[in-house]
Model the fold of this input.
Amino acid sequence: GVGDGGGPAGGRWAVITSASKSFNFPALTGSYGIIGDPADRAEYLRRMETAEGLASPAVLSLTAHIAAYREGAAWLDAVRAYVTGNLAMVAERLDAEFPELAWVPPQAGYLAWIDLRPLGVDEEALQRVLIEREKVAIMPGSVYGAPGFLRLNLGCPRSKAEAGVSALVRGLRTVRA
Done:
């Protein structure tokens, strides 16, 4: 039950997380954990202090986390709305150019995973065109174990997202011709 380390559903649990991605301070390298079972928590702390050499957090990271959680809600809401706009722009553009992809924005996050398999394009040929001719690097899915997909990062200014999608559209037209 609640209070005995088992949580409402019982059993052992842990949450290890960080604000660094959401609030854009990954270089500060901070994270934190909440571990329900007291024995597991003690073992985790022992391992962090001895085996991992992580006895205390960086003060700047700790300060950034506190500030982000206390003061950053409006900023995060604005960023989420902006990224949602980027994703909507990609969906509109892909639907207009390649409706057979039937791409739908993800429910969360800023990565557009685009399944290119319906187009029958050669991933390596597309990468060559994107890098050599279009001068953009859009990660092929095979790098992540998902051949046939493309990973487009939309956590960026709209102008950069638009340029990337335009390059992708031109690249796809080239390799399909």
User: Anything to note?
Assistant: Helices lie at 38-49, 59-71, 73-97, 123-133, 158-176. Residues 48 and 54 are 5 Å apart (CA to CA). The radius of gyration is 21 Å. The first strand starts at residue 14 and ends at 17.
